[in-house]
Structures are given as C-alpha cells and as structure tokens.
Input
Amino acid sequence: MGFEFTPSGQSFFGPIVTVSGIGGSVTNTDLGYFRTLYGGQLYPPHTEANNYTFHGSISKYQYIGGQANFNSGDIVTIDMSALGSLQNNPAGMFSFSCKID
Output
C-alpha cells in the first residue's frame, strides 16, 4: 500500500513532509468486531521529500485489548497526520480505508 501527495499537497506542505499514523480501526461485521488501532505502531513518523511514495506493510496489528492477524472481509482504516517544512508549519490529517480480500 502507498500514497503520494498531489501537486497541490506538495505545494501546501513544502519540500519536506513528516507523515505519521495517529490511529485507525479494523472492522468486520461478518465476524462481529470493531477494533481500535494504535497509531504509532501502524506507521511511525517518516520524513521524506514531498514527492515520495509513502508506503508500508502490516501483517499483524495491535489493538486496544490484544493482537491479531487480518481476516478476509476486514475493513482497515488508517488515520494519518502530515507536517510540512514551510515556515508556517502547515499540517493536515487524512484517512484511507481498504478491504482485505
């Protein structure tokens, strides 16, 4: 999995961006759970050029109450923060979700 900032995002944050995971969730209504994820464990801070493809992989995850592997049908949402390098310290938050096959 990975993402890049659009040209407008690159302009907004400046030449260097620090991206961090701040939380998330794993939901599976068929199996009957909703799990809250710890952000720093998912994606610790990465400081890179604004055109970098931020990426990572997760095989197991820790949630409030335990640790688990992903199951088919899990919907994973990861909440992220970004802090730019410009003098005015531009910052933003965003989320993305995916479903495990």
Notes: The CA atoms of residues 17 and 84 lie 5 Å apart. The beta strands are 2-3, 16-28, 33-38, 46-49, 54-55, 60-63, 66-69, 75-84, 91-99.
